[in-house]
């Protein structure tokens, strides 16, 4: 019997242990999609206690606390930070089988050197020790990024953002990690939402001109894409909760925009045409600039309308959607490909039933001399657990090239989440080692270890083409 989460955690053979220790363990991290706050990075935000570092904004934990019967007062309410931590500690033993059980203890081990198992009995001691460490030096936001051996962080930024914090981060003399913006124009695409025209007014403010028609909107979006590019941005990110596509023309979409700007609602068919043409326009621009387009598909958001009214979005009330994605997704990719304007693209679905569908679609649009140009993205959100990661990698392996996979991202608001890369790398090494152990792959550690290195770091470094630091210190 293994010890709990020892050095061989998730590694079930000597081959897996060797692959992890020799080829993956010490590699840097490229976090090409996350939700970290660039202002907090600039200011090297410190945390007064483990609750602030761990539980503020973490809807993964909130969902499990609610499932465990914890009152909302101890989750998002006015209870003290200590009482919220105790409520989480009471919940942790009940999370066995959920990745948060392992993530929780990985974070305690790697950042705080605490190997105690968290529960109600150990919680006061762990609270005191983490409070002592957090009150000292070396636990600010930038410190945690550096301790995690991160080379690149891509934050998630609205087109109207000024990116002032990114600029100031680049000027820091003692911080070499590249913190780059990602272009997230969801509000420009969601023409059916009541807030659409309000956001268009905000865009006009940063663009410096009134947006009275669709052509001006496209000009403003291009202006912001190029602004992000000048700030080092090389990726976009789109939340495509329902994948839509319909053939249309700019003239037709201009009429749809004018209709909505005049106070009327778009029909579903009009929404499809607007989104298809606008995303097509952006895709061509991304291709011109050498960017990577990321599409996060099939989330069903804000399921609980009562709690949405109390707490707002991103508070733990989202789930998987089951919309069909194949035909509209192929329509978009094919439209861009026909124009020789398909950018590097990463496709994710929150519904694991889409795994083989996406893996197969990816293979239909490869080429152009770029290895793995179209990527099946890593297991995402509800799927970034052991089984979800294995399912995604096996689907990719079965119909594509896992060897060209760009690997893990963090997709988190927490500076302590970088241990998820270790979790992923251990699962990856164990999977590849099992193929060696079963005689499916030759016992050639140089070959397989090279694939591990690629997936864990080197493929992403080559694929994204992130700008190098302007100053070599």
In brief:
With 473 residues, the chain is an alpha/beta fold. It folds into 2 domains: 47-135, uronate isomerase, domain 2, chain A (Orthogonal Bundle), CATH 1.10.2020; 141-190 and 199-242 and 274-464, TIM Barrel, CATH 3.20.20.140. The protein has helices spanning 14-24, 38-42, 50-54, 59-67, 81-91, 99-112, 123-135, 141-147, 164-170, 186-189, 196-207, 214-230, 250-261, 268-289, 305-311, 326-338, 355-363, 386-399, 419-437, 445-464, and strands at 29-31, 150-154, 178-180, 182-183, 235-240, 292-297, 299-300, 319-320, 344-349, 374-376.
The CATH topology assignment of the largest domain is: TIM Barrel
Please compute the radius of gyration using only Cα atoms: 23 Å
Task: Quote the average pLDDT.
Answer: 97
Number of helices: 20
Under the CATH scheme, which class of the largest domain?
Answer: Alpha Beta
CATH arch. level architecture of the largest domain: Alpha-Beta Barrel
Coarse shape: globular
What's the number of domains?
A: 2
How far is the first residue's CA from the last residue's CA?
48 Å
Percent helix range: 40-55%
Largest sheet: 5 strands, parallel
Question: What do we call the CATH homologous superfamily of the largest domain?
Answer: Metal-dependent hydrolases
């Amino acid at each position: 019997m293994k010890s709990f989460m020892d050095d061989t955690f998730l590694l079930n053979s000597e081959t897996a242990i060797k692959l992890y220790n020799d080829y993956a363990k010490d590699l840097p991290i490229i976090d090409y999609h996350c939700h970290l706050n660039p202002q907090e990075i600039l200011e090297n935000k410190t945390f007064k206690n483990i609750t602030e570092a761990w539980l503020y904004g973490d809807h993964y934990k909130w969902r499990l606390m609610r499932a465990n019967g914890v009152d909302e007062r101890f989750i998002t309410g006015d209870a003290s930070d200590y009482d919220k931590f105790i409520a989480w500690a009471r919940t942790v033993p009940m999370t066995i089988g959920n990745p948060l059980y392992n993530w929780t203890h990985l974070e305690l081990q790697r950042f705080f050197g605490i190997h105690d198992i968290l529960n109600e009995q150990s919680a006061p001691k762990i609270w005191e020790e983490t409070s002592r460490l957090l009150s000292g030096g070396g636990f600010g936001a930038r410190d945690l990024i550096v301790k995690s051996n991160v080379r690149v962080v891509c934050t998630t930024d609205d087109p109207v953002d000024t990116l002032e914090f990114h600029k100031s981060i680049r000027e820091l003399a003692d911080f070499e990690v590249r913190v780059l913006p990602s272009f997230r124009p969801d509000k420009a695409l969601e023409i059916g939402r009541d807030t659409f025209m309000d956001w268009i007014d905000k865009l006009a403010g940063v663009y410096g001109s009134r947006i009275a028609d669709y052509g001006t909107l496209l000009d403003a979006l291009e202006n912001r894409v190029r602004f992000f590019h000048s700030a080092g941005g090389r990726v976009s990110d789109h939340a495509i909760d329902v994948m839509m596509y319909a053939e249309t023309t700019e003239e037709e979409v201009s009429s749809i925009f004018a209709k909505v700007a005049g106070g009327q609602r778009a029909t579903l068919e009009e929404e499809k045409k607007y989104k298809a043409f606008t995303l097509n326009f952006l895709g061509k621009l991304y291709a011109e600039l050498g960017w990577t387009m990321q599409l996060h598909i099939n989330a069903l958001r804000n399921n609980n309308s009562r709690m949405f009214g109390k707490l707002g979005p991103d508070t733990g009330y989202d789930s998987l959607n089951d919309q069909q994605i194949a035909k509209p997704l192929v329509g978009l990719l094919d439209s861009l490909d026909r124009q020789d304007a398909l950018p590097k693209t990463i496709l994710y679905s929150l519904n694991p039933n889409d795994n083989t569908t996406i893996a197969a679609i990816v293979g239909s649009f490869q080429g152009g001399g770029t290895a793995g140009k179209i990527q099946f993205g890593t297991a995402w959100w509800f799927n970034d657990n052991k089984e979800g990661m294995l399912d995604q990698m096996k689907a990719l392996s079965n119909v594509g090239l896992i060897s060209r996979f760009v690997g893990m991202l963090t997709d988190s608001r927490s500076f302590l989440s970088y241990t998820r890369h270790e979790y992923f790398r251990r699962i990856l090494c164990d999977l590849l080692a099992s193929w060696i152990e079963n005689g499916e792959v030759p016992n050639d550690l140089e070959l397989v270890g090279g694939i591990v290195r690629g997936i864990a770091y080197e493929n992403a470094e080559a694929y994204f083409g992130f700008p190098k630091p302007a100053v070599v210190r």
